[in-house]
Amino acid sequence: MMTDATTIAARVERFVRDTVAPYERDPRCGAHGPSDDLVAELRGLARDAGVLTPHILADGTHLHHRDVAVVLRAAGLSPLGPVAVNVAAPDEGNMYLLGQRASAEQKARFLDPMVKGEARSAFFMTEPAADGGAGSDPSMMQTSATRDGNHWVVNGRKAFITGAEGAQVGIVMAKADEGATMFLVDLPDPAIRIERVLDTIDSSMPGGHAVVAIENLRIPADQMLGNPGEGFQLAQVRLAPARLTHCMRWLGACIRANEIATDYACRRHAFGKPLVDHEGVGFMLAENLIDLKQAELMIDWCAAVLDDGHLGTAESSMAKVAVSEALMRIADRCVQVMGGTGVTGDTIVEQVFREVRAFRIYDGPTEVHKWSLAKKVKRDWKHAKES
């Protein structure tokens, strides 16, 4: 690990614990995430503290993923931390994709405002199940892209689009004759209409999760990301690391939840002794330590593979399953240790439980990743038999 990354992570941790955490009860934290006003205020404080977009250095280079892991874990110590320091989803994944594949002109127009924390973004891929559209199976995509001279015209509907309300940059995936294709668009645009923002179990991401109608959206050809038909390839450039960075952020949140539950168990007395001295409680906290360390090691292993340029869907699927399931166990135990207090808003433990429960679904439910891994098992077996 680079010393610089260790220093950056320490500064981010101090900022999140000392400056961001007191905002967790701010009334601007709503059911659909923190308001844009609160986001701007927090990012202003992060900018002043020198910790805004800390995973992208002043020269534009991106930290190695093993270094990103410690920085994002520190940011995740508060549900507001990733938003405040500009490493939250979907912006962090979108910045990574544009940094890897956008043209110089596209970076100047779309990426630079995101890196500066001046613009939020949205990734328009998932579609409503009622329309028979793409969810975990992107090959079911219904949204169409048709050439019209030097423009493309996009029509369709999207669902669970995180941060669409209030975003300034959009990445839209649609199906052209050549296959799935990605486009960059300025937001808001009258051709992209938010039908509703869904009421979901999680509440940490600005703008919430929207259902969106796209009606005759005209996009200049130079706003295509990559080439026609490269959409699925580009999606993997974004999604494999993004699954891992989700793990990093929520590991930080669960570390904090476990700190709160541990403090409660050591202070609270029942039946003549502290709760932690009761085997049923103490063992849950011990199991949390085991799951936290296993999640940390899985993230570090997967980040090392990514840094070596060998991260595939199998590795990211394994990390997503192992870490999301471990963090769910940790969050659940924290609630249980704290009893009635654990299901109130008096601490962030209740919110962390909700957020991690949602994490088991987004960026691919556990079962989809297991199914993908099972297919790999069969392929590897057949290859071994044939060789």
TrEMBL record:
Keyword Oxidoreductase in record: yes
Protein name: Acyl-CoA dehydrogenase
Domain Acyl-CoA dehydrogenase/oxidase C-terminal: 229-376
Domain of life: Bacteria
Keyword terms, alphabetized: FAD, Flavoprotein, Oxidoreductase
Cofactor(s) of this protein: FAD
CDD domains named in the record: ACAD
Coiled coil spans: none
